[in-house]
Design brief:
By secondary structure, the chain is of the alpha+beta class. It is built from five helices and twelve strands. The strands form two sheets. The chain has a seven-stranded antiparallel beta sheet, with helices on both faces. Strands 1-2-3-11-12 form a five-stranded antiparallel beta sheet, with helices on one face. Strand 9 (about 220-225) and strand 10 form a beta hairpin. The longest helix is centred in the N-terminal third of the chain and has 38 residues, at about 5-40. The chain is globular. The chain starts with a helix and ends with a strand.
């Protein structure tokens, strides 16, 4: 059956619109960031919330969750750009940016066969943002590493530690993945693969203990992908075998809302 001419026309129009938006994306993103910076500078400092991350020394940029930065993004996108770029493709790009940086996002997911809904909060790291369910997790900023860990850790030491760490390396993703695979060779089960989901990059996965025969065998999963600056983001997830459909699924879904916010071209990128 032949393709409907209207379908082809719509597809061609969408492609053209995307191309038009991409020609302006650097200018758009720089305008957004400039407006956000100005609005943030004008706002008084707010006290940290109970689980707000603290600023660490030696970071390339603050990993602190900036309330003014978050709250001003949607307004900045709409106010700064509406006058200069009144076209449908650019408006679509603005809407996308607003969606990326909404202060809260309702997340619906299925865990261990049961539906679950949470209201996740936006957190800013070095060159990225991510959404976290603060009823279960908290973000801890350390030197060069951002750690998402359980808000309430189990007191029973039978359970292996559960966390997700985000850092950056100055080498390409393939080299970083190969290096991690070598470091994990002492584990009974190790594998590395290119993946498209939840991000595009390398996945390096290892299972310790008995290699997958016991409920408490530790599971280590790395996602390694291009940071847009000649290096790599390295995301380490650790949980245990029995928690694969619980914490493992939560971390997997969390990575779907990971967005790079800067690179050499000054553009926003969704991995």
């Amino acid at each position: 059956m032949g393709r409907d001419p209207w379908d082809q026309e719509i597809a061609d129009g969408l492609k053209k619109g995307t191309d038009d938006a991409m020609r302006h994306k650097d200018e758009i993103w720089m305008a957004i960031k400039e407006r956000i910076h100005n609005e943030q500078a004008q706002q008084p400092a707010e006290p940290e919330t109970r689980f707000a991350p603290r600023e660490s020394k030696g970071r390339r940029r603050s990993g602190r969750r900036a309330a003014g930065w978050i709250a001003g993004t949607a307004a900045a996108a709409a106010i700064v750009l509406t006058v200069s770029f009144q076209t449908a493709p650019v408006q679509a790009f603005i809407d996308q940016v607003k969606e990326w940086f909404a202060p809260q996002k309702t997340v619906e997911q299925e865990l261990e066969g049961m539906p679950e809904t949470s209201v996740d909060q936006l957190h800013e790291g070095a060159d990225y943002v991510i959404y976290i369910d603060e009823s279960r997790f908290k973000m801890v900023h350390e030197s060069g590493v951002d750690r998402i860990e359980l808000k309430e850790k189990p007191t029973d030491d039978r359970y292996p530690e559960v966390f997700m760490e985000i850092s950056q390396e100055g080498i390409d993703p393939k080299s970083a993945a190969e290096q991690l695979q070598k470091e994990l060779q002492t584990y009974p089960k190790v594998e590395a693969n290119l993946v498209d989901e939840p991000i595009q990059g390398w996945e390096v996965r290892a299972v310790g203990g008995t290699g997958g025969k016991e409920w408490d065998d530790p599971v280590i999963r790395y996602y390694v992908f291009d940071n847009g600056q000649g290096g790599s983001f390295v995301v380490k997830q650790q949980y245990f075998l029995e928690a694969s459909e619980g914490f493992g699924a939560r971390f997997h879904n969390m990575m779907k809302e990971f967005h790079i916010t800067s690179n050499h071209n000054g553009e926003a990128t969704k991995e």
